[in-house]
Amino acid sequence: MPDNSKYAYIVGRLRALDTKMMNQNSLERLVDAGSADEAYRALNDLPLVMGSMGDYKAQDFNKVLIGALQEMKNLFIQMAPYKEALNFLWYKYDFHNLKVILKAKLTERGYADISHALIDLGTISFEDWEKHLLEDKKIELSEALDKAIHRAKGAYEKTNDPQVIDQTIDQHYLESLKEISDEMGSLLISRYLSRLIDFSNLRAFIRAKELNKDFGYFQRVLLDGGHVFPDAFLGSYERGYDELRQVLEKRMHADDLVVSLDSFLEDRNLLAVEKKAHELQQEFMSEANKISFGPEPVFAFFWRFENQLNIIRGVLVGKLNSLPAEEISKHVLTL
Q1: What is the pLDDT of residues 60-98, one digit of tens each?
Q2: What separation, in Å, do the N-terminal and C-terminal C-alpha atoms of the chain show?
Q3: Average of per-residue pLDDT across 101-117
């Protein structure tokens, strides 16, 4: 079991950096800026972002934001006592890139067609992904990524359905997070991940029903490890949404699943389920701030920083598309 007291240094440094995060006043200045260029210049007031601005213009904002995340990632790697625990953060990008590149390979698209969709923040470099998936060269991969590639390829060959690639890789991503979580021994991280798995299973149920997938397909994409056992979803699949709702109503820790399902049934939009997954992360960050030492406040800081960069991205996209401030405010995430 890791010694959480070894996180004292990185947590102390991050608490100091927390004071340099974007606050509500900074956000309002961005939103109220008269143009995209004016909003972009306002980033100079954000110490954790301005270092990545260089000679870029407002239209290049994505390069600036990715650069800021890369700088933060490098800082984390320098300070973290257990580097492997940080894969809980970096795997999100590895598995995203894997989905993009594997679908390109299997549908015979070139690297140039998908390079814009890749995010250079994972444990595997773009060059290595290109060598491995598009040139069939061997690179060093974690067991989790290697297994995900083989299973996703196999699933696609059986179905010829690109969506199966997404489902299979998402499944392996959460399984990988669970393995890292078990090694850390954090009750808060374990609880957060269990709830994330519950929402992943609800999303899988809805997608499978809407696409008229058979029971066998749904069974393959379900994950174990949530508060709600897979049997609850499996037993309801043939009967549909009403049956699932009745089953979830009787389960502990499933109230928010029922609310999300009701929201979907009202407007047939998965946005409510996706939004709830974001809220789970917000709840985790709030609880993590109460912990003195350990991986929890480290993860919470990175996610908070990531969240703020997504807010900045949303504002600048709105400004570049000449949306009014009121409209932009409706769509950006909350701090």
Answers
A1: 999 999 999 999 999 999 999 999 999 999 999 999 999
A2: 33
A3: 80
- Answer yes or no: is pLDDT of 334 > 70: no
What radius of gyration, in Å, describes the C-alpha atoms of the chain? 21
> What's the confidence (pLDDT) of residue 302?
95
Q: What contacts 248, CB < 8 A, 6 or more positions away?
A: 228, 232, 254, 257, 258, 261
Q: Give me the DSSP letters along 278-302.
A: HHHHHHHHHHHTT-SSSHHHHHHHH
Q: Residue 166 is encoded by which pair of tokens?
A: 């997404």
Q: Are 173 and 145 in contact (CB under 8 A)?
A: no
Q: How confident is the model at residue 335 (pLDDT cuts 50, 70, 90)?
A: low
**Residue 221 near residue 204, CB atoms below 8 Å:** yes
pLDDT of residue 257: 92
3-class DSSP string for 155-168: HHHHHCCHHHHHHH
- For the stretch 219-259, pLDDT in tens is 888 888 899 999 999 999 999 999 999 999 998 888 989 99
Amino acid residing at 236: S
Report the alpha-carbon distance of residue 246 to residue 254 in Å, rounded: 11
Distance (Å) of CA 214 to CA 102, 116, 122, 236: 24, 34, 34, 13
- Within 13 Å and on the Cβ side, how many CA atoms surround 303? 23
CB-based contact 125:90 (threshold 8 Å): no
Contact 103, 153 (CB under 8 A): no
Distance CA(150)–CA(78), nearest Å, equals 33
Reported pTM: 0.88
Q: Between vectors from CA 103 to CA 99 and to CA 105, what angle results, nearest 5°?
A: 120
Helix, strand, coil % over all residues of the chain, rounded to 5: 75, 0, 25
Angle 163-160-128 from CA coordinates, rounded to 5°: 70
Cα gap 278→311, rounded to integer Å: 13
Name the token pair of 246. 């009745």
